[in-house]
Write a structure and sequence with these properties.
By secondary structure, the protein is α+β, with helices and mostly antiparallel strands. The chain folds into 3 domains: 170 residues, Hypothetical protein af1432 (Orthogonal Bundle); 149 residues, 2-Layer Sandwich (Beta Polymerase, domain 2), CATH 3.30.460; 90 residues, Beta-grasp domain (Ubiquitin-like (UB roll), Roll). The chain is 52% helix and 12% strand. The protein contains 19 helices and 10 strands. It has a 5-stranded mixed sheet with strand order 1-2-5-4-3. The chain has a 3-stranded antiparallel sheet with strand order 9-8-10. The chain has a two-stranded antiparallel ribbon with strand order 6-7. Helix 1 runs parallel beside helix 3 and helix 10 crosses helix 11. The longest helix is centred in the middle third of the chain and has 35 residues. It is flat and about 75 Å long. It starts with a helix and ends with a helix.
Length: 463
């Protein structure tokens, strides 16, 4: 996509005011804004006001006259709308016990223009990726807003890709222990699932083609938070007495995209003749769409003794709208008429009644943590699993023996701590080291809690 004159000018203005302005994560505000802009481009957004708004939403109000003169009042309105949403600071003292529906409805009521809402949601999805640099309290607040405010709005609007991105990153921040275990389960099954896909896709395409259906088949492994929610639902239904992922068989998903509604039902009938279905799990969202307008047939098939497959069947038009909501229809189908449609009813977002449209995705369950281990973040946001009671020395040796040997202390959530500091869930840990090679102190053997650290200390001292 070639850049317009206004886009180029917006980049110039953004760089001049934001290029040297650092964020807490280390990147500049310009780099962050550019990432939001690029994400919109990848999502198929071509609306100039949205793209310029994404680039300039962090520029201070004192430069509004310059922006209006260079880019016009419409782009400035989008920027002001983004500022308004940003300034509306919702604090969840305890989201499990607060009425989050009020927050969501109020947030929707603040939004006059879907373009502003869409940019804001993508901005939050980009922002949460660097949330690990903040204090645990701030990380939790960012993650809770993602789970209890932005994600439900994304679901309501049908923005499935943004929903998944927000939920997985928030899941990682709030429940790093559960996130770590889901990742391990997925990694363990990934090769087997991918092998199944390699065999199943060409087989299905051949069968469908023989029946006159030229289908596009997409495969995926479910995103981490959806697997976690499945485990919670099993716990709530009494299928499990604790959170476990051993009996969750349907972590593999398949989308079959066809030309017509009639072909959707034909494909479903063909699949029923190939694999046993689970009738209780079937949902026909073509006949009964979700409040967001989402349409698809959902089935679960038992493809082997230890594997279920969730299949979604839809038309190309349904797929496009499901992936990016009603906005996708505007961007891809209406094109230049997008602005006209918004202007015809600029307040249509206020007409959405969240109370009537809420669904099961807001159900809350009690969280059961794995008490045996503690989960902390590296400066880059990776999760480290250590036995509870582990300290800075253990963390350092977990990373590498050289880091452990040269350890002088740590920085936890921005505060300098000693080597015996006991790591807590959600801590962001950076190891301080000396530039000069040294051997560990013999006293460290008494300080270290993990066998790995003790072994490496002994090796450094006596080898």
């Amino acid at each position: 996509m070639s850049e317009s004159i206004k886009i180029k000018k917006a980049k110039e203005i953004a760089f001049s005011y934001l290029g040297e302005k650092p964020r807490y994560s280390g990147e500049s505000y310009y780099e962050h804004s550019l990432q939001v802009y690029k994400t919109l481009i990848k999502s198929g957004v071509t609306d100039e006001s949205m793209l310029c708004g994404a680039l300039l939403h962090h520029v201070e109000k004192e430069h509004d006259s310059e922006i209006e003169k260079a880019l016009g009042p419409e782009i400035l309105d989008v920027i002001r709308g983004l500022r308004k949403l940003s300034e509306y600071d919702i604090r969840f003292s305890s989201p499990k016990h607060s009425n989050d529906k009020y927050f969501i409805q109020t947030y929707l009521n603040l939004t006059k223009d879907i373009r502003v809402l869409l940019v804001r949601l993508i901005d939050r999805a980009v922002n949460i990726k660097t949330a690990y640099v903040h204090t645990p309290e701030m990380r939790n607040e960012i993650a809770e807003k993602a789970l209890y405010l932005y994600s439900p709005i994304c679901r309501l609007m049908g923005f499935s890709k943004i929903t998944s991105a927000l939920e997985d990153e928030a899941f990682k921040l709030v429940y790093p222990d559960q996130y770590y275990n889901v990742v391990k389960i997925v990694d363990k099954r990934k090769a087997e699932i991918n092998k199944f896909f390699e065999d199943a896709v060409p087989f299905l395409k051949t069968i469908l083609k023989e029946n006159g259906v030229d289908a596009e088949i997409k495969t995926r492994i479910k995103h981490y938070f959806s697997i976690y929610k499945k485990a919670l639902s099993y716990l709530a239904k009494g299928k499990n007495t604790e959170i476990t992922y051993d009996n969750i068989l349907d972590i593999a998903g398949m989308r079959i995209i066809v030309d017509t509604v009639e072909q959707c039902y034909l494909v479903e009938d063909i699949l029923k003749n190939i694999w046993p279905e689970q009738p209780d799990e079937r949902n026909d969202y073509i006949k009964t769409p979700k409040p967001s307008g989402y349409k698809s047939i959902h089935d679960i098939f038992n493809v082997s003794e230890d594997k279920n497959l969730e299949v979604q069947i839809r038309t190309h038009q349904m797929h496009e709208e499901n992936e990016f909501g009603s906005a996708s229809h505007f961007f891809y189908k209406i094109g230049n008429k997008f602005r006209e449609n918004i202007l015809e009813n600029p307040n249509w977002l206020k007409e959405i009644n969240y109370w009537e449209n809420q669904s099961h995705f807001l159900e809350n369950y009690e969280i059961a943590h794995f008490k045996e281990y503690v989960y902390a973040f590296t400066p880059k946001g990776d999760i480290i699993e250590l036995p509870r009671g582990a300290n800075i020395i253990d963390f350092a040796y977990y990373i590498h023996s050289k880091v452990g040997n040269n350890c002088t202390g740590g920085v936890v959530n921005g505060n300098i701590v000693k080597i015996d500091y006991e790591i807590k869930d959600g801590d962001r840990v950076e190891i301080m080291t000396t530039k000069h090679l040294k051997k560990p102190s013999p006293d460290w053997i008494k300080v270290a809690k993990t066998k790995k650290a003790v072994s490496m200390i002994r090796k450094a001292l006596y080898s």
